[in-house]
Amino acid sequence: MPADTILIIGGGPAGLEAARLIGDLGRKVILVEKREQLGGTPVAESYAALTHGFRSAEEAMNEVIGAVRANPTVDVRLGSEVVACEGEAGNFRVRLAKSGNGAGEDLHAGAIVVATGFQHFDPGRETQVYGYYEYDDVITLADAEKMLKEQKFVIPSKGTAPERVCFIQCVGSRDRQIGNEYCSKVCCGISSKQAIEVRQQVPGAKVFIFYIDMRMYGYWENEIYWPAQEQYRVQYVKGIITEIIRKGGRLLVRGEDTTMGRPMEVPMDVVVLAVGMEPSSGTKEVARVLGLKQNKYHFIDVPHDSLDPTATSRPGIFVAGAAAGPKDLDDTMAMAGAAAMKATTLVARLARQAA
Amino acid sequence: MPADTILIIGGGPAGLEAARLIGDLGRKVILVEKREQLGGTPVAESYAALTHGFRSAEEAMNEVIGAVRANPTVDVRLGSEVVACEGEAGNFRVRLAKSGNGAGEDLHAGAIVVATGFQHFDPGRETQVYGYYEYDDVITLADAEKMLKEQKFVIPSKGTAPERVCFIQCVGSRDRQIGNEYCSKVCCGISSKQAIEVRQQVPGAKVFIFYIDMRMYGYWENEIYWPAQEQYRVQYVKGIITEIIRKGGRLLVRGEDTTMGRPMEVPMDVVVLAVGMEPSSGTKEVARVLGLKQNKYHFIDVPHDSLDPTATSRPGIFVAGAAAGPKDLDDTMAMAGAAAMKATTLVARLARQAA
After folding, report:
1. Nearest CB neighbour to B182, from listed A221, A310, A331
2. Is the same domain home to B152 and B254?
3. Per-residue pLDDT tens for B199-225?
4. Which residues of B touch A24 (CB under 8 A)?
5. pLDDT of residue A7 exceeding 90
6. Residues A268 and A302 in one domain
7. What whole-number distance in Å separates Cα of residue B123 and Cα of residue B141?
8. In principle, which of A334, B74, B254, B340 could form an S-S bond with B23, CB 3.0–4.6 Å?
9. Interface of A with B in 106-165 (CB under 8 A)
10. In this structure, are residues A166 and A268 in contact, taking their beta carbons and an 8 Å threshold?
């Protein structure tokens, strides 16, 4: 008999949503999460407001977590990892191990949804020009989220409110030198959202965004980009930043204003690096264990001519969210629903065929 | 008893995919399409290659249509429209009418998926500066798709191969004057894809793209934008086009090159207007009949703080694809899967509760 349980790997937004939906259908789900808590990156990295109506990320995640926890057909395994997998669609035999512990358990699953997400690019790694490891006041989008969540957006080295804040776009994205040619899709939107939050929390601060192209696609244009400019007076400068140095207790940001066609040198109290997405270590590890093809950037590969954004190289295994590449929250939730549907459909069809 | 049939309105990519998936689960679907054929805009407007590996749109659509047609639980009603709807989740009573005919039929549905799509902005309507109605050689992305599909990309007024072709971005998008402040999301990618196709079909042609921001998010950056520049030598110019006039048998495109900070005046054989998305007449009509809230742009409104991109203002009615606003094909297919899952889950839960 084919197995009727669906295994979901990853307890972030995509994995939670897929688990919630399959559970709602009364079908059996095992949700495996490496961390000791659910909620994925938004919870682990203390995200502030979401781009969806500036709703609290914690509140939104708690709602999905609550729905999963309340569902008796969803079996949640925290602190656990998939360490081996054999078999095929309808009959995957998966070995689970407690993280940092040899003790294992064997599972039987009809289909698998991979929702192991992304990690932020480490801007100290190769792009040394921005001085992330040298200067306390050069931070990342993720660092900024934490301060914004605590309603305490300050100059890290001083603990006081900043007068001048800037965001530098495309750090770790659109960059052949570091090997990440892709665009990380969400950083323009998240930077603009944070710029609005900074202006709300520190009304006296001047906020600048240095960008190549502002990729405010769809409704982000009218819901975030226009208000950022018109209502919150965020200043967008098309330009390239070549260097950050420390001068007179402040940061000096040097580069070129592309529109004006002239060099620029501007003092800042806080510089936020809009770091891009890379596959999480969990995504790379799970792809290896499940034998899934990865693309050039080590995200899970979705077949190139596929009209199914949740397909992987292995039948019966689906991908949802940023494990497949840069995704926004709408992408992630839609993919989670689609992957849940496809996993369910597959398991149901195999059961009908076996009956 | 709650109804177990799911009604899908719209037979384009989103509606077909939702119908296919729900049908695969062995559940009853009625798929209603106003046109006399399935396939939606890609078929009706003769799209050429998709951005997914430059696969033939016709071939890809035929695959999904075939899957729907082969499924005995999917009841396809062509040339039909929903003209009335009352009731609530689990118990919608819907009146169907043959297009252009009073004859009606009453249906009972447990849930509804709206997949009524978009239409291209009409560039002759208000943006008269581009002369769409005056000059044969000013065409739209949709017009260009037709020529590219037939492998016959010519100067419309002459029937000969063009030497110089340009694309003008953001026609009908990001424009407060015409009331469409949103970004249409896909036009940068589609223009770049078409630019590549023009260079493939007319290797001697020079191709230019005039843009505000190149919104090549995610993998479009490395899969389309970089090859367009490096391999196909498409020339991207950040600039604003203010006027098109006819001069010496050619078109003269006038504007400002923003990067160089100087006026430009360039002769072209064909000008392609990258027209944006607006809600289709079907989307507006169905929203009215079903009593769904529409946003400022008359797309179907998705509640603002929702983490569900397929939610509408009315429980039991879900939206998939560009009926909810500008969407790319990945968005559309993922939303279709998610809406299918949510409709199915709802119908199954109501049946359990009633049992």
Report:
1. A221
2. yes
3. 999 999 999 999 999 999 999 999 999
4. 345, 348-349
5. yes
6. no
7. 11
8. B74
9. none
10. yes
Of the residues A276, A310, A336, which one is the last residue of a structural domain? A276
The total of structural domains in chain A comes to 2
Count Cα neighbours of B79 within 13 Å in the Cβ-side half-sphere: 8
Task: Write the ipTM.
Answer: 0.97
CB distance from A19 to chain B under 8 Å? no
- The reply to whether B153 and B271 lie within a common domain is yes
Query: Within this chain, do residues B169 and B222 fall inside the same structural domain, yes or no?
Result: yes
Cβ-based contacts under 8 A for chains A and B: 173
pLDDT tens string B105-162: 999 999 999 999 999 999 987 666 799 999 999 999 999 999 999 999 999 999 999 9
User: Can you point out the beta strands (E) in B157-261?
Assistant: 164-171, 206-211, 235-247, 250-257
Are A222 and A327 members of one domain? Answer: no
Residues A158 and A249 in one domain: yes
Q: How many CB atoms within 10 Å of residue B70?
A: 10
Name the minimum distance, in Å, from the CA of A260 to any CA of chain B: 7
Residues of A in contact with B213 (CB under 8 A): 213-216
Residue B162 C-alpha, separation from nearest chain A C-alpha, in angstroms: 30
B196: Cα within 13 Å, side-chain hemisphere: 21
Instruction: Give B-chain residues touching A25 at CB under 8 angstroms.
Output: 344-345, 348
Q: Does B214 touch chain A (CB under 8 A)?
A: yes
Query: What are phi and psi for residue B124, nearest 5 degrees?
Result: -90, -15
pLDDT of residue B102: 65
Which residues span the domain enclosing A181? Answer: 121-276
Q: CB B217 to CB A339 under 8 A?
A: no
What is the CATH number for B179? 3.50.50.60
